[in-house]
Amino acid sequence: MSTSLREIPRSEHGIARKSISREAAQVTERLQQAGFKAYVVGGAARDVLLGVTPKDFDVGTDATPEEVRGVFRSARLIGRRFRLAHVRFGREIIEVATFRGLGDEGDDEGDRSVEKGGRVLRDNVYGGSVAEDAMRRDFTANALMYDPATETILDYVGGYDDILANRLKMIGDPETRYREDPVRMLRAVRFVTKLGMEMDPATEAPIRELAPLLADIPPARLLDELLKLLLGGRAWEGFRGLVRYGLWEPLFPELLADPAAPPVLVEQALKNTDERVAQNKPVTPGFLFAALFWPKARAEARSRIDNGQPPVEALAAAGEKVFDRYTKNVAVHRRFSTMAKEIWMFQPRFERQRGKRAARLLGEKRFRAAYDFLLLRALEDPDLKDMADWWTKVQEVDEEQRNEMIFGGPRKNPPRKRRKNQGSPQG
Length: 427
Known about the structure:
alpha+beta; cca-adding enzyme, domain 2; 48% helix; 21 helices; 5-stranded mixed β-sheet; Beta Polymerase, domain 2; 427 residues
C-alpha cells in the first residue's frame, strides 16, 4: 500500500477546530510549540467525518513519554512495554502515544513478540515516523491524523476516501494482519455495526477461516473487546455479526444451541440494551450475561430441581457450573457472573405474591434487574404473563392499593421509621 501523503484542507473535509475536544487541541498545540509533531489520531477524525460524536480523543506525537511529561508536568506515564502519557484536565484525560514504527505488528496495545498458534507476532518498534505510525494501524479509517492548528487532515493510506465511501478496509494484507492480531476480526465487526460501514471484500474474506485463532487470545482481552461491541448501542447487530462471521463459537463454544436463531429472551435482551444506550440509561454486562447463559443455567437447574433440590439453591449451583464451563475462552468477571446468578435466584421468589416476603422483594437491590428479566422470560413462556403483570401493577399503584394486593388490606403492623443512627438495612 502506498504511503504517499495527502493533505486534506478544511475546505474539503469540513472539520473545524471546534469539532475537536478543546483539551486535545491544547495538547497538540503545546507539544507543537515545544518543537514536536502532534496530531489528533485514532477514531476521532473518523467519527466526526461520519457525524458520530467521538467517545474520546487521542493524540499521537514524536515526543517520548518522558518528553510529554516535560511539557505537561501533571502527565502520568502508564504501561510497561509501550509507555503512554495521560494528560489530565480535570475529569478529562487525553491519552498521548509516541509514534510507532512498521516493525510493530502486534496488537494495538503492542505486547507481542513470538510466533504461536498460526499467528505472526513481532516486537514493538518505538518511535516511528508519522507515516509509519499510520501504516501500522489496523484499518484505513482509523489512520487519519488531524492537526487542529491548521485544521488539516493527514492521510497516508487512503482512509479519507474509504470513509466517504462508507468502507472498512484493512491496511496491508488482511490475512497477514489478522494473523498478527486475531482481535482485529472482532474490531472489524464492531466498526461495521457501530458505524454502519460496509466491509471491504478483501478485508472480509479471511475472517471465517481464521476465526479459530481467537482461541489463542488472552481471555481477559477478549472480554474487553466483547464488551465494547455489546455495550456500544448496537449489541443485537454486533451479536449477529459475530455469528455471521463464525466468531461467536470461538468465544463461547456450545453456549447457545443455535446462535443463528437465538432464544427470544437473548434477542430481546440485546435489543433492550441498545434501547437503553440510545436513551442514555445505564447498562450492565451482568444482565446481558444473565440472558446469554440462561438457557444452559435453566436446563441445569431443572435437573437439580427434579432431584429434589430447592429452586433457589438449584439456580445458584447451576450458575456456578455453567459459568465455570463456558467461560474458558472469555474471562467473565466475577462481579458480572455474580449479578447474573442473583438475577436467576430471584426468579422463584416472584412466585410469592402475598405477605412480608413479597413486600421485601420490592426494596431489594436486584429487584429491578430481576423484574426486567422476568419480563423477558414471560416473552418465551406465556404461563408467566399473569405473574409478570402482577409485579408490574404492584409497582405502579399507590401505597394503599399495594398493601391491598400484598396483604389483602392495610398493614396491621407497618414498619416503624428507622432512626438516623440505625444505619442502612442489610440486603
